[in-house]
Design a protein that fits this description.
Helices cover 40% and strands 25% of the residues. It starts with a strand and ends with a strand. A four-stranded mixed sheet has the order 4-2-5-10. Strands 6-9-7-8 form a four-stranded mixed sheet. A two-stranded parallel ribbon has the order 1-3. It is built from eight helices and ten strands. The chain has 281 residues and is α/β, with parallel strands linked by helices. Bound molecules: iron/sulfur cluster. The site of iron/sulfur cluster has 10 residues, from helix 5.
Length: 281
Amino acid sequence: MREISCEQLRTAVAELFLTANRQISSDIRAAMEQARDRETSPAARYALEQLTENYVCAEEDGLPICQDTGMAILFADIGQDVHFTGGSFEDAIQRGVADAYVGGLLRKSVVSDPLFDRKNTLDNTPAIIHASIVPGKQVHLLAIAKGFGSENMSRVGMLTPSAGEEGVFNYILETARLAGPNPCPPIVMGVGIGGDFEQAALLAKRATARPLGVRHPDARYAALETRLLDAVNALGIGAAGYGGRTTALNVAILTAPTHIAGLPVAVNICCHASRHAETTL
Ligand code: SF4
């Protein structure tokens, strides 16, 4: 049994959310610079110039990439031979998130009651934690700082098997069309196909963090990703909604077995500020 202290976990979580908020990942940055260089619409090109320059300013000055510093989402894949010592796993993560958002002067965006009080918790907790038990002695942490301009444009559809590939394609494309300029394009579309209602959504959220350029291992889904990316870009919504060639940087699909009567499809939209960071303890 390997021991990992809750203090180490807390520090790691804090560092992940600070990094995610201040440094865009190299693949997103490269894709945005490529989109900027190939853009033919002057207004969209200007937007892409501003957005890519903003990445540089944020990293150099230690400032958040966007004023919406997101709700803290943490995927924790926990080796079954790990024992957390010196406190509670949940508490360590929540304290790490508070350390990052309070200590790092990041905007606090979480309210304790969703409908009536809507009172800010003042430290951006609670984070949403998705913990899985996996073989081994390591803990993999994936932190996502999720802005809600794009989260609000996400959808879950309980399609039936007769919808087939075209039904799935149309649902995903319709989601991008309905979102329009609201999710701060260029967007990253995470798609979950299969499972049940909530598993499809979880797959979609995790898919938003898949590195650009990595395709689904099944050639049929990989082809669907490419076809969808072309179709979303053909919508012409463009950077910041100014038209042009790039509405989406990526469409990433994750899949799971499902019920014989169902074909769940979830689309989680992420903005150009696709902020995520990961580490292994
Ligand atoms: S959707 Fe993304 S880019 Fe737009 S305000 Fe929210 S975090 Fe910022």
